[in-house]
Structure formats: structure tokens, C-alpha cells
Specification:
single chain; 82 residues; GIY-YIG endonuclease; 3 strands; globular
């Protein structure tokens, strides 16, 4: 199973979008400060996930969420969370 996930920094209230095939390990990596992009923004909280059956679809969705249109869509999805 592949996942696209969104983390919220409790420090600066900004989000991080990523993808993985091992969500528990990846969240642990973020929490321990092993991920360069988020280590200075800890603590991070998992606020959203989407499941996929293959890597290609996962990467496409991650790329979409990092685009302008995708960020607008995420803002609507996450409006009650952030």
C-alpha cells in the first residue's frame, strides 16, 4: 500500500506533503528529525492520508498536491483541521 500524507508543523503551522510505502516508518523519520525538510519545524502532526495501490498514482497525487491547483484543493480539504 502506498500513501500520500500531509503533516502539519505545530511550530509554524505550515504543511509538508510526502509519499511513502511505509507510513509508520516515514512518520517516525519525521518525528526523529531525520528528514531535512522538516527537522527544524518539529513537532509535526499527521493530519491527512490517501491510500493508493501503486507508486505511480501516489507520485502523481503528491505532485498534484504540491502544485498551485493542488494546494488550493488541499486548503478546502483541510479547512477544518488547520
Amino acid at each position: 500500500m502506498w500513501n500520500v500524507y500531509i503533516l502539519l508543523s505545530l511550530k509554524d503551522k505550515k504543511t509538508y506533503t510526502g509519499s511513502t510505502n511505509d507510513l509508520d516508518r516515514r512518520i517516525s523519520d519525521h518525528s526523529c528529525g531525520y528528514v531535512q525538510a522538516t527537522k527544524n519545524r518539529l513537532p509535526m502532526k499527521l493530519i491527512y492520508t490517501e491510500d493508493f495501490t501503486n507508486e505511480m498514482d501516489t507520485r502523481k497525487k503528491e505532485k498534484y498536491y504540491k502544485s498551485c491547483a493542488g494546494r488550493k484543493k488541499l486548503k478546502i480539504i483541510l479547512k477544518d483541521i488547520i
